[in-house]
Design goal:
2 strands, mainly alpha, single chain, two-stranded antiparallel sheet, 6 helices
């Protein structure tokens, strides 16, 4: 196998999101304290909790509405319909999509503050609100038969983005 190992990001003007849960598929750290210590990147030899053979990498992730929605559809394509057996996997993977939505929304608020919308104590972009609506629509297409998925995520998105239930 061959991967280009660059010493700088391409393009060089990018945002860094120091959140270990976006790229990893399974939560590895049991406590918030462990997670925060791991986030420092320090290995055990330097007083951290990461193994001494740890290598921290940053991988580009493009965030646009089409790709975020595609990733959500891929979750359904791969895992099929939500049920009691795969509910926790759906929840973990869909929360990554929600994190991507939140980052996308924050960037668009910063880029176009004059069009931002205040909802309760939060500020959202029109693009973020629209994307949240589309995510809810996809989640509603196949509700499956799991106990609380996707309803808990839908409720959170509706409350956060001021979206009325249909």
């Amino acid at each position: 196998m061959h991967h280009d190992l660059d010493i700088y990001p391409i393009p060089e003007k990018v945002l860094y999101i120091n959140d270990l849960t976006i790229a990893d598929t399974a939560p590895y750290y049991e406590t918030t304290k462990q997670y925060e210590k791991a986030l420092t990147g320090e290995t055990q030899a330097k007083g951290g909790i990461l193994p001494d053979d740890n290598v921290r990498i940053y991988v580009p992730l493009d965030l646009n509405a089409d790709q975020i929605l595609h990733r959500l559809r891929e979750i359904y394509r791969i895992m099929e319909s939500p049920d009691d057996m795969n509910e926790s996997d759906f929840w973990v993977e869909t929360n990554k999509i929600v994190a991507q939505l939140e980052i996308y929304d924050q960037v668009w608020v910063a880029r176009n503050l004059k069009d931002a919308v205040r909802i309760n104590d939060n500020i959202h972009s029109p693009k973020g609100i629209q994307l949240a609506k589309e995510i809810i629509s996809i989640l509603m297409e196949d509700e499956g038969c799991a106990e609380s998925f996707p309803y808990n995520i839908i409720d959170e998105l509706q409350a956060e983005f001021g979206i009325q239930a249909d």
